[in-house]
Amino acid sequence: MKYKLKFKFILMTLLVFKSFAIELTEVFSFTCSHCYNVEAQVEQASIAKGVTFIPVPLYDQQKLSEVAAINAYFAAISLGKGNLFKRAYFDAIFIRGLEAYSKEALIYALNQCELNNKPFFELAGSKKVTAMVNYAVSLAIKYNVTSTPTFVVNGTTFYEGENGIQEIFAGS
Q1: What is the Cα–Cα distance from 41 to 7, expressed in whole angstroms?
Q2: Buried b / exposed e across 126-144, counting CB within 10 Å, b at 16+?
């Protein structure tokens, strides 16, 4: 019941907030339980009118399995399935108990999104997706965030932790 009330508050705030335009960047990690806990609120904020949403996943660029998952996430975004992929990937880890960045977690998320096919994998390795990933990496470096989730409004104001998203919309 507590979560339903919070969720309704966020939705009502977003309706009021729609007359404002903001750029909302979420710095998150697929291994962060706090990021998982706020995912429903982040998803609603990401699709709200007047909000330009920029996801910045933190990951180890030296580990191929992590690069593959992040590329798949940005490919899903380019197909309009970013929120679905993110939710499915979080579920693979926090509900199904699969190891983060494992092949099994990635396949689970892809199957949930109906993206486990050759054209999708070609898109995930494309220049378009590489450019999206590189932009997110540049923001991660620019913002130098050390904890997740962190929300950045208009590139200047930082809100950390699970309550960050609520703090942003409470001030609107």
Answers
A1: 7
A2: eeebeebbeebbebbeeee
Nearest to 76 by CA among 26, 28, 128: 128
* Strand pairing class (150-153; 22-28): antiparallel
Pure H helices in the chain: 2-17, 33-37, 39-46, 64-78, 82-94, 103-112, 118-124, 127-143, 164-170
Q: What is the Rg, in whole angstroms, of the alpha carbon atoms belonging to the chain?
A: 16
Any bridge partners for residue 53, and if so which? Answer: 24
What is the distance in angstroms between the CA of the first residue and the CA of the last residue of the chain?
A: 24
| Average predicted confidence (pLDDT) for the chain | 89
CA distance 139 to 121: 25
Tell me the whole-structure pTM to 2 decimals.
0.86
Residues 25, 159: contact at Cβ < 8 Å? no
pLDDT tens digits along 94-150: 999 999 999 999 999 999 999 999 999 999 999 999 999 999 999 999 999 989 999
Q: Which two tokens stand for residue 31?
A: 């291994």
Contact 166, 41 (CB under 8 A): yes
